[in-house]
Amino acid sequence: MPQRSLPMLTMLGIVAAMSVGPVAAAEPTIETTSPYPPPSPQIHITADGRPQPGDDIGVVVRCPYGAPGGAQSPVLEIGEFEKVDTPAGIDTYVAPATIGSGTEPGDYPLSAGCGKNGLRTTFTVYPADDDGSGDIPAPVPGADDDVSEDGTEPPQVARTPKGAPETGGDPGADLAVWVWGAGLLGLLGLGSVMARRAVRR
What we know:
CATH class of the domain at 42-130 and 162-200: Mainly Beta
Distance between the termini: 94 Å
Region (Disordered): 129-170
Number of strands: 8
Signal peptide: 1-25
CATH topology of the domain at 42-130 and 162-200: Immunoglobulin-like
Shape: globular
Keywords: Membrane, Signal, Transmembrane, Transmembrane helix
Radius of gyration: 30 Å
Transmembrane segments: 175-195
Number of helices: 2
Helix content: 10-25%
């Protein structure tokens, strides 16, 4: 019985597959990784000026594992977290919060959960009538002199306004990288969250 041979096109296909297979397997796999380490979870508050009893503030959490949970503080009424966009694309969430009207001035704890991480910080509540105007400014050389030694008036010195966001904890922490850069962020996002909360009231 005569042997049956494979059609020529089929033979060519098998040869082509055998030749391509080893070449494809030999190609190196290139892994694309970010040159920067993932940001670590953090928590802090942001406020318009010095936090005082009855003030509406924001609780800000940077959490790469999804929405934070279990946020609590003995002097805060905390709303729901909403994710906000940040210039650096860091997973950041903001929740509106209100300081209890009867809160005594002092330092208070704030905590929240982020994945398996427990985040903690402290923040300061100031007296209701404390706007920072009683702070003693640093002396400015020549500020008390009307005329300098060469007969000219001393230069005017611009003073930095008070009321920066209250971060709590060590100011040297990498909250600066945070934007939190975050930029403090999405304060645009915080504004919209708190505006929606005001409408619900």
